[in-house]
Design goal:
The complex is a heterodimer of chains A (260) and B (199).
Chain A lengths: L4 E14 L3 E8 L3 E7 L17 E7 L5 E10 L6 H16 L7 H16 L4 H14 L21 E5 L3 E4 L13 E2 L5 E4 H8 L6 H19 L6 H11 L1 H7 L4
Chain B lengths: L4 H11 L6 H14 L1 H17 L1 E2 L6 E2 L5 H4 L4 E8 L2 H10 L4 E5 L20 H8 L3 E4 L5 H13 L6 E4 L15 H9 L6
Parallel strand pairs in B: 3-4, 3-5, 5-6
Antiparallel strand pairs in B: 1-2
The chains are: A alpha+beta (260), B alpha/beta (199).
The structure holds zinc ion.
Chain lengths: 260, 199
């Protein structure tokens, strides 16, 4: 039996109305990972429905464990308001966490990374790098991190001038002969459906350097493929938001497509 | 405590309604049966008929038993201003406040991807067509100032880019008569971000 958690710092990932005045919330806590719980009496003008909202930080107090704990208190500490692209990106992160984390599996570093991702998204107009950085950290925390620094076969450092094929759940191996390095696009595919990337793109991803559009595209595909293995076939619903949006926004769609 | 199967069923049904606790449900049930049989019959008939016949307005999707609701059918309502709301009860609130003479579009919800509510579930695909067909020049997004309400507003704003309508968002912030020191942090952040120059 876990000791009761007292005023545990947490981010709100989701809130759903429950009965007349209560809510079911999903939290990313600092020491206990994802925690789902019932908070009573959060609705009504006086109490302020905005107080326990996604992205905001709360201090949560609960006892017990399981799918749904009883949250005695869920005090709002710092609200955070995301707008525009950052709002959709934030919802994407939240869905990603709810879908990939099991309840009360401690992921201490993620609490920090999540906060950093929100801050990045709030302060920069460009949210895509923040998403990729977070996806990379999430995979690492889940134990599905990829090696971006060495060729899996030879063990040698990734060579910017070579092409590589993805190895699911592990990293990359160099393409042997017959492929023209200049013609192989960073978004190509191998014969078995693996992703094909240039060494330069892999090195940029490893350095978290997302200045170039081709690096963004390559990273999006690499992380999406890696996450799909954790998501078990059911697609993320928040991706729909980006897809519909980019199809109605022809300029952006042609520039870089959806960002998640 | 248990009364009889039929009375218990009535109490349970009443209790399932918003704002009705076990005490009120019991009192209402006993009152109807003890003192107001005619009222009980009338309530039952009204419920049955409403549940069978009330559907959605073809134009704005609000609840009505006619093909087009009274607001949409009213030629004096301004088709140039279209107000998008989450639920029919929002229409009631705006109508009671007065001052808005345009028309509405009801989403019957808000985007909530984690709960499986996406753009399709809200009929958002029909909205651009609706705006073009009605010739609305302004679309007022009156979804709630929650994260999901904001996401819904943002999505609609993006989806209406291809139309000629100007898209506006209702203002949120410090309530009239409110005092800053008693207002929650979220509202203050929102009010500060939505600040505007003094007229
Ligand atoms: Zn109507």
């Amino acid at each position: 039996m876990l000791p009761p958690a007292d005023r545990q710092p947490a981010y709100v990932l989701h809130r759903r109305a429950f009965r007349e005045t209560s809510a079911i919330v999903e939290l990313l806590t600092r020491d206990h990972g994802r925690v789902g719980g019932v908070v009573r009496g959060v609705k009504g003008a006086r109490r302020g429905v905005n107080n326990i909202e996604p992205f905001g930080q709360v201090a949560a107090t609960w006892r017990g464990r399981g799918q749904l704990v009883n949250l005695f208190r869920c005090e709002p500490l710092a609200p955070r308001r995301l707008v525009g692209d950052a709002l959709f990106a934030g919802l994407y992160l939240n869905e990603l966490l709810v879908r990939t984390l099991s309840h009360e599996e401690p992921v201490p570093a993620l609490f920090h990374h999540y906060g950093e991702a929100l801050t990045r998204m709030t302060s920069h107009g460009d949210v895509e790098p923040a998403l990729r950085l977070f996806e990379r950290r999430l995979l690492e925390e889940l134990g599905y991190g990829l090696a971006f620094d060495v060729d899996l076969v030879s063990g040698r450092p990734i060579d910017s001038a070579q092409n590589y094929l993805s190895v699911d759940g592990e990293g990359f191996r160099q393409v042997q002969g017959g492929v023209d390095a200049t013609s192989a696009a960073s978004i190509g595919r191998g014969s078995a459906g693996e992703l094909m990337l240039t060494g330069a793109d892999i090195n940029a991803i490893n350095a978290d350097d997302y200045q170039k559009a081709n690096v963004r595209l390559a990273a999006k595909r690499v992380f999406r493929r890696a996450l799909e293995r954790r998501l078990g076939g059911r697609p993320l619903a928040t991706r729909q938001l980006f897809q519909h949006r980019s199809s109605s926004t022809s300029i952006r769609a042609s520039a870089n497509g959806s960002i998640a | 405590m248990r009364l009889s199967p039929l009375i218990d069923r009535l109490i349970e049904s009443l209790q399932a309604q918003p704002g009705v606790g076990p005490k009120t449900a019991t009192r209402t049930a006993l009152h109807l049966l003890q003192h107001n049989r005619a009222g009980a019959q009338a309530l039952a008939a009204a419920l049955t008929e409403a549940a069978e016949r009330v559907g959605r307005c073809r134009a704005c999707r609000t609840l009505t038993e006619t093909e087009v609701c009274a607001i949409c059918a009213n030629p004096r309502r301004d088709a140039a201003a279209l107000c998008v709301v989450e639920s029919p009860s929002d229409i009631v609130a705006i109508e009671q406040a007065g001052g808005f003479s345009g028309r509405y579009f009801v989403l019957h919800g808000r985007l909530s991807p984690i709960d499986g509510v996406g753009p399709e579930e809200l009929g958002l695909g029909e909205l651009p067509t609706h705006v073009r067909e009605t010739g609305a020049s302004e679309v007022i997004l009156a979804t709630n100032p929650t994260v999901e309400g904001e996401a819904t507003a943002h999505y609609i704003k993006e989806s209406l880019r291809g139309t000629d309508a100007q898209v506006t968002r209702i203002a949120h912030g410090v309530p009239i008569g409110g005092e800053l020191e008693y207002i929650d942090g979220g509202t203050i952040v929102h009010a500060l971000q939505g600040r505007r120059s003094v007229d």
